[in-house]
Automatic annotation (TrEMBL):
Record has Glycosyltransferase as a keyword: yes
Keywords recorded for this protein, A-Z: Glycoprotein, Glycosyltransferase, Membrane, Signal, Transferase
Descriptive protein name: Core-2/I-branching beta-1,6-N-acetylglucosaminyltransferase family protein
PANTHER family noted in UniProt: CORE-2/I-BRANCHING BETA-1,6-N-ACETYLGLUCOSAMINYLTRANSFERASE FAMILY PROTEIN-RELATED, CORE-2_I-BRANCHING BETA-1,6-N-ACETYLGLUCOSAMINYLTRANSFERASE FAMILY PROTEIN
Localization (cell): Membrane
Signal peptide: 1-21
Native organism: Rehmannia glutinosa (Chinese foxglove)
Record's keyword annotation contains Chaperone: no
Topology of the protein relative to the lipid bilayer: Single-pass type II membrane protein
Length: 350
């Protein structure tokens, strides 16, 4: 005869596999960062931007033969006030024909519109959060809106509310658009390339790859093609289009993470996609300096007012590539005044 404890443990044992079979169907998924209506909204926007840009891959080269000047689209991705708006305001001053500004501000946070060059520059935005793919969506929304808005937008620079410029607008514009690629490794490289960090040898890469579960990224993204880099980049128009057209990699990157400690999808999606699609069209480094020494909780070193000096600006500009760093992060909001104090004599003098 079976005794009761035996029966009990036997039925428990039996129920385990059943649990695995049925629980995912009974309970809704724990974490759905991007709803179907949001996803469809985005798809419609990306489709419109793709159609409108059809055949404009040659915009930059055509521009050479007309007197219409290419522009840089500055894409501000924020969930707070734009603390450094007055500094950026000075950066943009008197260059109206050469740039456009677009701001994606989390609609769930209270933001004081900064006015000046920023007025009317807010785009249709959706909620953004750390540790899930909403930051990728926000950046893609910015790219698509800027692609649609002005065919002269030729470079697309993503910055955050914690970023500051390290050079004058003129310096940035001329470096990007008038004397491009002085560090050409071979004459077969395209004239204009994207400035995006693309790394493949970081120690945390394996955990990041498996953040959504083991082998989930296959077959689209084998580990050998998975990359890491900063989410703050400067893309060519052609690459902005590559990003908003992508459906294949997005299907994987939009999946929620199981391991939230290794969940930074926006640091992987863009470098992985572009290194698969057009590695030679990317410089593989970023123009935005960030100090990871002593980082806390995935946040880099945040500069405080007492650290701000002309020497710091000069040090932050120094890079190992032939391009100087043009932007830097992160700075605490109260750095604004010390930065403004040396804007004319240090930051914008180059
Ligand atoms: C980077 O941050 C560390 C503190 O975490 C600081 O000691 C160092 O001076 C910073 N480096 C630069 C170039 O600012
Ligand atoms: C430049 O390269 C050196 C040597 O690899 C490295 O120690 C340094 O941090 C690099 N500087 C920057 C700004 O990346």
């Amino acid at each position: 005869m079976f005794n009761t404890p035996f029966l009990l443990s036997f039925s428990l044992l039996l129920s385990f596999p059943l649990l695995f079979l049925f629980v995912p169907r009974i309970l809704p998924p724990r974490h759905v960062p991007i709803s179907l209506p949001d996803e469809l909204d985005d798809l419609a926007l990306f489709r419109r931007a793709t159609l409108a840009s059809f055949g404009d891959g040659a915009t930059l080269s055509r521009l050479g033969t007309t007197n219409r000047k290419p522009k840089i689209a500055f894409l501000f991705l924020t969930n707070t006030d734009l603390h450094f708006a007055p500094l950026w305001q000075q950066f943009f001053q008197n260059n109206e024909e050469f740039y456009n500004i677009y701001i994606h501000a989390d609609p769930y946070s209270k933001i004081t519109p900064p006015g000046g060059v920023f007025s009317g520059r807010f785009i249709a935005a959706k909620k953004t959060q750390r540790a899930n793919p909403t930051l990728i969506s926000a950046a893609r929304r910015l790219l698509a809106t800027a692609l649609l808005d002005d065919p002269l937008n030729s470079y697309f620079a993503v910055v955050s509310q914690h970023c500051i410029p390290l050079h004058s607008f003129k310096y940035v514009y001329e470096s990007l658009l008038l004397k491009p690629i002085s560090d050409t490794r071979s004459s077969s490289l395209p004239m204009y390339r994207s400035f995006i960090e693309i790394l493949d040898d970081e120690p945390q890469l394996w955990d990041r790859y498996n953040a959504r579960g083991k082998n989930v990224m296959l077959p689209e993204i084998p580990f050998s093609r998975f990359r890491i880099g900063s989410q703050f980049f400067v893309l060519t128009r052609q690459h902005a289009l590559v990003v908003i057209r992508d459906r294949r990699l997005w299907r994987k990157f939009r999946l929620p993470c199981l391991n939230l400690n290794s969940c930074y999808p926006e640091e992987h999606y863009f470098p992985t996609l572009l290194s698969m699609e057009d590695p030679d069209g990317c410089t593989h480094y970023t123009l935005t300096r960030v100090n990871w020494t002593g980082s806390v909780n995935g946040h880099p070193h945040t500069y405080r007012p007492l650290e701000i000096s002309p020497q710091l600006i000069h040090k932050l500009r120094q890079s190992n590539s032939s391009y100087s760093f043009m932007f830097a992060r992160k700075f605490s909001p109260d750095c604004l005044q010390p930065l403004l104090d040396m804007a004319d004599n240090v930051i914008f003098r180059d």
